[in-house]
Design a protein that fits this description.
By secondary structure, the protein is an alpha/beta fold. The chain has a single domain, classed as NAD(P)-binding Rossmann-like Domain (Rossmann fold, 3-Layer(aba) Sandwich), CATH 3.40.50.720. It has six helices and nine strands, in the order βαβαβαβββαβαβαβ. The radius of gyration is 16 Å and the shape is globular. The structure holds NADP nicotinamide-adenine-dinucleotide phosphate (NAP). The site of NADP nicotinamide-adenine-dinucleotide phosphate has 24 residues, from α1 and β7.
């Protein structure tokens, strides 16, 4: 049975680069995001390199879909990577920022569900199995906005601060059960298939690899800039 990494919010940037890094170590990969066609393109890239890949179309803010996927993976789930995060781009691909008063209620609710609540759903669903096995890693894609928030990117800033708090709060109790949780604060711009994307993938691998070291040397946070 192959050890599996599940990427929730799998896209062509950090999500794919991190999956590629784990696949190189022999991990099977499950990619999950809303757009099934785009997922299949990423799966094809991984399969070309010899990886065992499954893609699953789901929305991370759907608690039952997230729980069902984690339940289906059962003992195979070794690494959970929560990577979903909402940034808005215009038609030319430029990042769009918004003042709080310009965001509709439905955008605020949806942003918080994707940036934080989905992570809570996923961690809650994965925790019992990992604790019972006394083995598992939860990796969260954080951001520099966690500690240097921006008014014009407020829902993402709140989201990254939330992920950082989740890792900090759960680190000790999970460690006591042999399960590792860590957030990587990505504090630079990252494009798909760039040196930065692969650097982030490597940084996630190094956080996960701490599990082979004495627990005293594990850390709940690292920074990539
Ligand atoms: N890129 C950067 O410069 C940068 C810098 C710092 C931090 N980050 C963080 O890194 C993470 C990944 O960013 P990235 O730019 O590299 O993106 P990515 O890994 O290429 O893609 C992230 C994917 O998340 C998926 N997603 C969004 N909402 C979702 C939902 N409700 N349910 C399921 N999947 C969802 C999107 O796919 P679907 O639309 O198909 O669902 C998207 O393709 C984000 O958390 C981001 O905040 C990025």
């Amino acid at each position: 049975m192959s050890k599996t990494i599940l990427t929730l919010g799998a896209g062509p940037g950090i999500g794919l680069a991190t999956a590629q890094r784990f696949a190189r170590e022999g991990y099977a990969v499950v990619l999950a995001a809303r757009d099934g066609k785009r997922l299949e393109r990423q799966a094809a890239v991984l399969r070309t390199a010899g990886a065992d890949v499954q893609s699953v179309a789901l929305d991370v803010s759907d608690a039952s879909a997230v729980s069902a996927l984690i339940r289906d993976l059962g003992d195979r789930l070794d690494v959970l990577h929560y990577n979903a995060g909402i940034l808005r781009y215009d038609a030319q691909g430029a990042l769009q920022t918004h003042a709080l008063e310009d965001l509709a209620e439905r955008d605020l609710e949806s942003d918080v569900r994707i940036n934080i609540t989905g992570a809570l759903y996923a961690i809650r669903a994965a925790m019992p199995g990992m604790k019972a096995r006394q083995r598992g890693t939860m990796l969260l894609t954080g951001g520099g906005l966690a500690t240097h928030p921006a008014a014009e990117l407020l829902t993402l800033s709140v989201g990254k601060a939330g992920l950082r708090t989740i890792a900090q709060a759960l680190f000790q109790p999970l460690k006591a059960s042999g399960v590792h949780i860590a957030v990587l604060d990505v504090a630079t711009l990252v494009s798909p298939d760039s040196a930065q994307a692969h650097g982030v993938g490597e940084a996630f691998w190094q956080l996960h690899a701490q599990r082979e070291q004495p627990v005293e040397s594990w850390s709940w946070e690292a920074r990539y800039s």
